[in-house]
Write a structure and sequence with these properties.
Helix content: 40-55%
Largest sheet: 6 strands, mixed
Number of helices: 16
Structural class: alpha/beta
Radius of gyration: 33 Å
Shape: extended
Distance between the termini: 41 Å
Strand content: 15-25%
Number of strands: 20
Length: 558
Amino acid sequence: MNVMSIRGLKKSFHENILFDQVNIDIHQGERIGIVGPNGAGKTTLARICVNEIEPDQGTVSFKGKIGYLKQSIDQEEMIGDLRFNANSFDFKREKELGIGSLQVGAENLSGGEKLKLALTKIWSMNPDLLVLDEPTNHLDEKGVNWLIRELHSFHGAVLIISHDRYFLDQTITRILEVEAGEISDYQGNYSIYRVEKQKRYEDQLHHYAVQQKEIKRIEGQIAGLTNWSEKAHRDSTKQDGAKEYYRMKAKKMDRQVKSKQKRLEKELQKNQFVQPEQGKEVQFQFQVNNSRGKRVVEAVNAGKCYGERWLFKNSSFYMKYGERIGIIGENGCGKTTLLQMLLGVEPLSEGEVWKSPSLKIGYLSQDVYDLPEKKTPIEALHVARKEEIFQAKSILASMGMERDRINATIAQLSLGERTKLKLTRLLMNKYDLLILDEPTNHLDLPSREQLEYTLQEFTGSLLIVSHDVYFMEKMCDKLLVFEDQKVKRIEHHLSHYRARTKEKSSSASSKKNEEQKMLLDNEISALISKISLLLPGDEKIAELDHKLAILLEKKRSL
């Protein structure tokens, strides 16, 4: 059953057509991912679906209630100054996400906590359709897994704009790709879509090559016939006795040329294969400082607290030159605070952090609103010399930013384009250590994949905070983990750590079950002893039998 029907949809901004003559049906229970490059029109499509903006042409019909999560949760009106009620349905969801214990207004929450809160408010509306724009940005692993579980149990339809490949693979079964003024439909999750997209590209390229070959063959025949025709016309004016023969021959050739030309035009009109556009080559290339050393960062008994609340304490760890370390932990545990401490912006509450005196650090914050909005990208980069301006424009273009966007003000840029601008700052300098706080947030999928490739080529050190599972698995072979109010160094990839954590959790759960079984066995034995002492017909036997049945059922469930 259709829950939404889109017919003849067209939307453009100035001369830029985002999409034209789009027809889409969204069925009950479908899980649809919307993907495409930054600025292609994904958020615009979502806003049309929720009736926030009007299309230029076409209609969107929907009956029911829509829950809409905007890309920037800071602008969510639904958050407000809320306090949690321990008896409310929302509180149970918030507690699962780790924010139920916060008896504070929403304005004091972190970005991830605000996003979690916004999600719980949307769920409490009991919508028939969920439209989620970048729902995993800032979410920790616990929050992402919670959202995956909730989407699996949700009975309505879901539209998700996301650049998180792991999340898309786990949640969606259909992809709508918004690109180059068209919306293409694919069945399957993200990984299946990538394979099918490449197959469609190769098929179209093959058909185009075959057609071009056929066009050249026919055009060669036309050229030959045209030459013969022109020769026959010339001969008809020179040879007195055969003028009529050559005139008839020339007319026959003319007819053949016209016939072949019409056949070619008819064939192209019927089956014209356009040369497919290969995805834009997004390129990053870091300048590298060649200074070398052994340990570049070391923390000894480091700790940070706010008032009486400790984020972490008594933590010792180190980082060597060339290492790639990922930082993981739940929202609010202190990951960004740790980065600020390493940068010297935030003081320690205890212990010390040593950095190599020659260490040059490049830092990418996750805040995309700290740029001067009235300036253009070039002005914001503070480049003046011709070669610097050329380099800046080249880098921005290589990251897929169109020329007209380079001349726009930062206020007009998308969040993804702002992230690319901040990356450009890093690309234009030589660094030993790159500290990246959620570097893939807002980046489109091609940009994420190219950034991975480039960072693998970077010879310096990397310290990365990210909730992008695929990105962390590719980039980092060691971890700094926030666990039990400590920062611990782990000598493994994320997948190995997660598997080990799951095994520990399972082992702890099993041990707890064994303890519960022993307690139940003792209670069961005590009840059986009581029953054995009673005489037949005693009224207490039925009551004790009922208690025994309950205990046996509990034991079976364990």
